[in-house]
Write a structure and sequence with these properties.
3 helices; about 180 residues; mainly beta; elongated; single chain; 5-stranded mixed β-sheet
């Protein structure tokens, strides 16, 4: 009985002591200065491109500049994600879908893959395949829209689902209206 009474007394004390936080203390010291031109929260932009074919390498390539009016070059350690737009249609009309690269397509002639690499100032999107790509359907090479998201390495998290563009944008507090269209 004494144990129950003691436990009850401790519980009542713990619950009643969690009240008013008291007066607000003095302001702490200011934090470190941020990088000029970037707010450290990541940024995104999209661009529609038409690929160039390189017969000696049997691939298509398109280069997207990161620094064109978006920001100065991003640090090498930042993560760069590239998503490809595909507009689909259902009974309610058209809607946008975004797929994280790399993205594979299995077509009659063989397999093609959209891949990318990047530097601090640009992203190269490549279409590679296991057959002669010189006659690849223009639906894969012309007017392709890509969204690039730069994630500062300071806030990069392994818990973030990078395949979900909307989740990445939400984690970085990027709204659709914040997306720069470089057309």
């Amino acid at each position: 009985m004494k144990k129950i009474f003691t436990l009850l007394l401790i519980s009542v004390f713990a619950l009643t002591s969690c009240g008013n936080d008291g007066p607000i203390g003095p302001q702490g010291p200011p934090g470190a200065n941020g990088l000029d031109g970037l707010d450290g929260l990541g940024y995104t932009f999209e661009e529609t491109v038409t690929f160039d074919y390189f017969s000696n390498e049997n691939l298509y390539s398109a280069v997207i500049q990161i620094s064109d009016g978006i920001a100065t070059e991003q640090p090498e350690a930042d993560a760069v994600l590239v998503y490809r737009l595909e507009v689909l249609t259902d009974d309610n009309g058209e809607f946008d879908t975004w797929s994280l690269l790399p993205q594979n397509f299995f077509i009659e002639e063989g397999t093609i893959q959209y891949v990318y690499n990047h530097t601090a100032s640009d992203v190269e999107v490549i279409i590679d395949g296991n057959f002669n790509l010189s006659n690849l359907d223009a639906g894969f090479t012309e007017n392709q829209t890509f969204r690039v998201i730069v994630i500062p390495s300071l806030i990069f998290s392994s818990e973030l689902d990078l395949s979900d563009m909307e989740a990445v944008m939400k984690a970085l507090d990027i709204k659709e209206a914040d997306v720069k269209n470089k057309q």
